[in-house]
Design goal:
Blueprint: E1 8-13, H1 24-38, E2 42-47, H2 67-76, E3 79-87, E4 90-91, H3 93-102, E5 121-128, H4 133-146, E6 156-160, H5 177-199
Parallel strand pairs: 1-2, 1-3, 3-5, 5-6
Antiparallel strand pairs: 3-4
Helix pairs in contact: 1-5
Length: 214
C-alpha cells in the first residue's frame, strides 16, 4: 500500500502556560518540529491549555468540547509529538488530560479492524528544573503505546536544569550542543519510522504479519 507523499507532524504542547506566554516546552517543541520541517515534513502544533478539552475518555465529550477537532489533527498526521514540562516528577496535568482523551482510540477501529491510531509514530520532548525526565517518558510512552501509537528508538528529547534552580530552558543563551544532536537523532528516527509505517501498515485484525523474504 502506497503511503502519503507528504508526512505531517502534529505537536501537542502540554505546558501550563496559555496564550503567548514564554514557555520552555514551547521552545523545545518548536525546535523539534522545525528540525522535522527541514526534511520536508509539514508541521503544526497547539497549546492544549488554550483549548477547552473536557475531562473524559471518549472521542467527543459533548457541547463545547475542543477535543474532536484536535483529534482530527492527530489522525491527519503520521507523526504525533507530545511536549510536556515536569511537575512534581510527573507529566503535566494537561498532558495527562491529553492521554486520557487519546484513550478513546482503544474502542475505535478502521475497516480492517486495526485501532485508528495504528500506523502513527510518536516523539516526546520534556523540560524541567527537577529530575524526572525518564519517569515522564516512561509514563507518556506507555500510555501512547497502549492506545496504538508506535515508538521509535531514541525519540525523547529532554532538558533538565539544576534542581530547584531559577534557569529555565528558554533562558539559555543558545541551544546546548547535546540538545541539538539529540533532536537530530530523534527527528531522523521518528521520520524514518513514520515513512515505513505509511508504506506498510500493520496487518488487519486476525491476519498474521507478512515478512519480506530476501
Amino acid at each position: 500500500m502506497a503511503g502519503p507523499k507528504t508526512i505531517r507532524a502534529f505537536g501537542i504542547n502540554c505546558t501550563l502556560k496559555g496564550g503567548d506566554a514564554e514557555s520552555s516546552t514551547d521552545l523545545l517543541l518548536s525546535q523539534f518540529l522545525a528540525r522535522l520541517g527541514r526534511d520536508g515534513v509539514e508541521t503544526a502544533s497547539i497549546r492544549a491549555v488554550d483549548h477547552d478539552i473536557k475531562p473524559g475518555i471518549t472521542a467527543d465529550e459533548g457541547p463545547g468540547d475542543a477535543w474532536p477537532a484536535i483529534r482530527r489533527q492527530v489522525l491527519d498526521a503520521q507523526i504525533l509529538v507530545i511536549g510536556t514540562p515536569i511537575w512534581l516528577g510527573q507529566p503535566s496535568s494537561v498532558c495527562k488530560r491529553v492521554l486520557e482523551r487519546l484513550n478513546a482510540f482503544l474502542t475505535e477501529t478502521d475497516e480492517a479492524g486495526r485501532l485508528r491510531s495504528y500506523g502513527r509514530a510518536v516523539a516526546l520532548v520534556v523540560v524541567g528544573n527537577e529530575d524526572g525526565a525518564h519517569h515522564v517518558a516512561a509514563e507518556v510512552y506507555q500510555g501512547l503505546a497502549d492506545v496504538g501509537f508506535t515508538i521509535p528508538p531514541n525519540a525523547v528529547v529532554y532538558w533538565v536544569g539544576e534542581a530547584m534552580g531559577k534557569t529555565d530552558y528558554k533562558d539559555l543563551p543558545a541551544m546546548p550542543d547535546k540538545i541539538g544532536t539529540t533532536i537530530d537523532l530523534a527527528a531522523r528516527n521518528v521520520l524514518h519510522l513514520a515513512r515505513l509505517l505509511a508504506e506498510n501498515q500493520y496487518p488487519p485484525d486476525g491476519q498474521p504479519a507478512k515478512f519480506r523474504e530476501d
